[in-house]
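We modelled the chain as a single entity of 472 amino acids. Its sequence is:
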Amino acid sequence: MSRTSTQSPQGSQQAVQNGSEPVLSHGLKQRHLSMIALGGVIGAGLFVGSGVGIAAAGPAIVLLFMGTGALVMLIMRMLGEMSAARPSTGSFSVHAEEEIGSWAGTTSGWMYWLMLCAGVAAEATAAGTIMHTWVSFIPAYGWVAIFMVFFCASNLTAVKNFGEFEFWFSAIKVTMIVAFLVLGVLGILGVFGSAPGTSHLTGHGGFFPTGAAGLAAGLLTTISGFAGLETVTIAAAESDQPSRNVARAVRTAVWRIAVFYIGSMAVVVTLVPWNDPKVASAGPYVTVLDRLGIPAAGTIMQIVVLVALLSAMNANIYGSSRMAYSLVSRGQGPRFLGKVTRGVPAAAVLASCVFGFAAVIAGIVWPTTVFAWLLNIAGCSVLVVWSIVCLTQLKMRRRLEREAPELLSVRMWGFPYLTWLAFAAILGVFAVMAANADGRQQLAGTAVVVAALAGAGHLKQRRDDRRADVTA
């Protein structure tokens, strides 16, 4: 039995506001939401990690980003529809619990929390390494501790302060990407020397130089690059006008990110050979800027990557703390994490930061075992979340059309066909992962965690149903 049998959308939302999920502050503005969406997803994965995808798939990485970007657009449209109709700090986790059951809400919520916390650890570690190269008398783990304390403290203050940090961090990243795209187009036109034409797209083995195996490896890289975009639907609940703001943020963030990712990859594979060793080692952005003769390209990109890491770290601490807070407020976690101080879920913020720092320590002590396992689970988590989002939207849309069509201010395109298409695409990605050894390892670890969370959620659902029968 799902909660939808006893609660309407309006009644459910009022319950969240008045009881099961205490109200947080509403200090975020529209400009904050747009940049939060960009901040959570545009990290070092674009500036550096995408080089691994290029090395795996060659110029065809552009097609992979186009396909993945199309899937992400569909997922975000579904999230936009549900969040505009039913704004909530728990976003898709709340919707899944109400439409499918506690097991779905528990699984999607805690898997997403795990993914964001693992991201915090990876970003803090990379940022600490960069800072250690500049200020060597402080060890890398010392810088990690400094960053963790700073962003934990900033997230414990008013949410508008977090929004301002993320706005300016993301503004720097966006400015850099726009400048890169402009310089790249000028380079393609021959302004900085001879125009490359299509030599790098058709030479060096052709457009598909590594075949199906390379495409499969590159696919996993592109998907992980988009993880974190969902945070905007979590943050919307703390904005001044949640329904309107989430709709606008989803519309603008998706196409901006698609342009940034696809445009950047197109510029890179046009200007430099995909098999240039520097693409994977130094990063595609540095390689292109060096090719164009931009002075101090490496230093510039190190600064930008550091900002990108800190921005994503900040956004992931925020998103993970809000998701944890929402889960425990619904009885799906330790109650002490639900404590709210001055409109901020302080206990959830601290818990997310502690887990992130513990993961950093695991990366130092057990880099190839515990930390590798954690990153493998996190890499697969977004696919689990997306699949549950598809199933949730199918049920919620039909119910809203019957009960409250006026809440559908944002509508999923081509419903239900595009929803089913997105779900089929996610299953296809799982199939691709199952076809190689590394992918099977990720799937096996993820399956164990999903089974444990779904089992715990199912037990809670049965317990709630028994209580409801007793009181009926």
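As a brief sanity check on the tokenised model: The radius of gyration is 22 Å. Residues 437-471 form the longest helix (35 residues).
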